[in-house]
């Protein structure tokens, strides 16, 4: 068995490289497309029943949500906020 100091040094070395990039990458690569696929299937199902107004309402909400998600994921929130403020203030 390894000496306690060697185990602590190894744990310390491994802990220094911890980050959340792996989790963020997995979410961006897998979860978001699956959620979008589920929403698309739901909208097609609602449209198949003939409720076109319901599809339009949900689609607008979906677009607003995707814009918010894109801003959150890109990390460009301050720049986008400044741009929108300049649109209003001139």
What is the element string, with H for helices and E for strands?
Answer: HHHH
The coarse silhouette is: flat
Cα-based radius of gyration, to the nearest Å: 22 Å
Distance between the termini: 69 Å
Overall pLDDT score: 78
- Largest sheet, strands/sense/barrel: none
- What is the strand content? under 5%
Helix content: over 70%
Alpha-beta content class: mainly alpha
Q: Strand tally, please?
A: 0
Structurally, the number of domains stands at 1
Number of helices: 4
Low-confidence stretches: none
Question: What would your notes on this structure say?
Answer:
- The structure is a single chain.
- The chain has one domain (21-89).
- The protein is flat and about 70 Å long.
- By secondary structure, the chain is mainly α.
- It is built from four helices and no strands.
- The protein is 84% helix and 0% strand.
- It has helices at residues 4-15, 21-48, 52-74, 77-89.
Q: What keywords describe this structure?
A:
90 residues; mainly alpha; 4 helices; 0% strand; flat
Write the layout of secondary structure elements.
Blueprint: H1 4-15, H2 21-48, H3 52-74, H4 77-89
Helix pairs in contact: 2-3
A few lines on this structure:
This protein is mainly alpha-helical and 90 residues long. 84% of the residues lie in helices and 0% in strands. It has helices spanning 4-15, 21-48, 52-74, 77-89.
């Amino acid at each position: 068995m390894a000496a306690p100091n060697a185990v602590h040094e190894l744990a310390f070395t491994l802990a220094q490289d911890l980050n959340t990039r792996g989790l963020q990458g997995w979410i961006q690569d897998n979860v978001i497309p699956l959620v979008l696929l589920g929403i698309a299937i739901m909208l097609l199902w609602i449209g198949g029943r003939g409720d076109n107004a319901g599809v339009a309402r949900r689609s607008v909400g979906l677009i607003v949500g995707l814009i918010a998600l894109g801003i959150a994921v890109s990390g460009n929130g301050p720049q986008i906020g400044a741009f929108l403020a300049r649109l209003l203030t001139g």
